[in-house]
């Protein structure tokens, strides 16, 4: 039996050597043998950089794309006028359809680009906060968004805590809004936590301190590695209690250069470094892309 084991081992080594030499010479084994035998395929499901989160630079607005295996999630699509940036970015990533869109809330810097996205990319599900009649905007941006949602045929899902979905080998969970009667639309933002292996990412839209408090009180597990900082770094968000619960190792602020709101505000620029010194801004770095192997996160920027 010992010899049989030894022979098997030698055969494996020879096969691996042949594959290595032939691969170096450009031979495509898939074409010769069909699919490679299972023993030669990595069974580590979190390898090969299958998880990516892209914080797309859309000026003063938000747009986050998450891809895992073949699954896709888009959270917001920037302001009116930045549609081309979003469409080009999705095309550059080879996106052909979207499994999920989360429209965090009804302000134009988040949903402005979604009609064009819905028009071009078949979309299965749209998750967004359900508004009362009093909360519902009547402006042309929101009307165009609703029209596009209807035309897309996508399933519309009301954002509420407890919703959990698979995204390839990753999952994402909706943590807010907790209540449905907040007068301020910002604090009706859909808050999304994405988990891949041991790594996690939190995207809060423009949720302000009152929604942050409600999510904490609702018992959500907010601990995350990466925080897309709420409301473009406004001092109306990112309360100390919320940051204490999240304990971010990396913060991303999505805002436009020299924006009219002064985002990110001084208080937040001073507060975040108490939690981490890895703070990245789209107005300075352009598109920010993170790749997770389920344990560690690599960050790269458009403007290196
Ligand atoms: Zn916003």
Provide a quick synopsis of the model.
The chain is α/β, with parallel strands linked by helices.
Largest sheet: 8 strands, mixed
> What is the CA-CA span between the terminal residues?
57 Å
Ligand names: zinc ion
Report the structural category: alpha/beta
Strands ordered across the widest β-sheet: 6-5-4-3-2-1-14-15
Under the CATH scheme, which architecture of the largest domain would be assigned? Answer: 4-Layer Sandwich
The CATH C-level name of the largest domain is Alpha Beta
Number of domains: 2
Following the backbone from N to C, one meets helices and strands in this order, namely HHEEEHEHHEHEEEEEHEHEHEHEE
Total strands: the figure is: 15
CATH superfamily of the largest domain: Ribonuclease Z/Hydroxyacylglutathione hydrolase-like
Summarize model confidence as the mean pLDDT: 87
Rg (CA only): 22 Å
Shape estimate: globular
What name does CATH use for the topology of the largest domain? Metallo-beta-lactamase, Chain A
Helix percentage: 25-40%
User: What count of helical segments does DSSP give?
Assistant: 10
List the helices and strands and how they pair.
Layout: H1 2-24, H2 29-33, E1 51-55, E2 64-68, E3 71-75, H3 83-92, E4 98-102, H4 108-111, H5 114-120, E5 123-128, H6 140-152, E6 155-158, E7 164-167, E8 170-176, E9 191-196, E10 199-203, H7 209-217, E11 226-228, H8 240-246, E12 250-253, H9 266-271, E13 279-281, H10 282-285, E14 288-292, E15 297-301
Parallel strand pairs: 3-4, 4-5, 5-6, 10-11, 11-12, 12-13
Antiparallel strand pairs: 1-2, 1-14, 2-3, 7-8, 8-9, 9-10, 14-15
The structure holds zinc ion.
């Amino acid at each position: 039996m010992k010899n049989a084991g030894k022979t098997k081992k030698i055969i494996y080594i020879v096969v691996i050597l042949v594959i290595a030499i032939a691969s170096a010479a450009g031979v495509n084994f898939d074409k010769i043998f069909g699919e490679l035998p299972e023993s030669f395929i990595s069974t580590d499901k979190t390898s090969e950089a299958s998880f990516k989160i892209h914080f797309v630079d859309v000026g003063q607005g938000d747009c986050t794309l998450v891809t895992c295996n073949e699954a896709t999630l888009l959270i917001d699509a920037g302001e009116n006028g930045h549609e081309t940036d979003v469409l080009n970015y999705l095309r550059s990533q080879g996106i052909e359809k979207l499994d999920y869109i989360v429209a965090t809330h009804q302000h134009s810097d988040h949903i402005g680009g979604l009609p064009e996205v819905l028009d071009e990319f078949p979309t299965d599900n749209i998750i967004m906060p359900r508004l009362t009649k009093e909360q519902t905007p009547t402006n042309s941006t929101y009307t165009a968004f609703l029209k596009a949602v209807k035309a897309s045929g996508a399933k519309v899902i009301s954002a509420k805590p407890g919703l959990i979905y698979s995204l390839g080998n990753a999952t994402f969970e909706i943590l807010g809004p907790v209540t449905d009667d907040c007068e301020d639309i910002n604090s009706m933002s859909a808050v999304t936590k994405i988990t891949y292996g041991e790594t996690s990412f939190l995207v809060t839209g423009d949720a302000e301190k009152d929604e942050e408090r409600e999510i904490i009180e609702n018992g959500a597990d907010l601990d995350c590695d990466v925080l897309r900082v709420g409301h473009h770094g406004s001092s109306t968000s990112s309360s100390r209690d919320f940051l204490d619960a999240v304990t971010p190792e990396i913060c991303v602020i999505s805002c436009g250069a020299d924006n009219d709101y002064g985002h990110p505000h001084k208080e937040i620029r001073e507060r975040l470094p108490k939690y981490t010194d890895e703070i990245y801004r789209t107005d300075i770095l352009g598109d920010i892309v993170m790749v997770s192997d389920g344990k560690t996160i690599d960050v790269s920027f458009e403007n290196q």
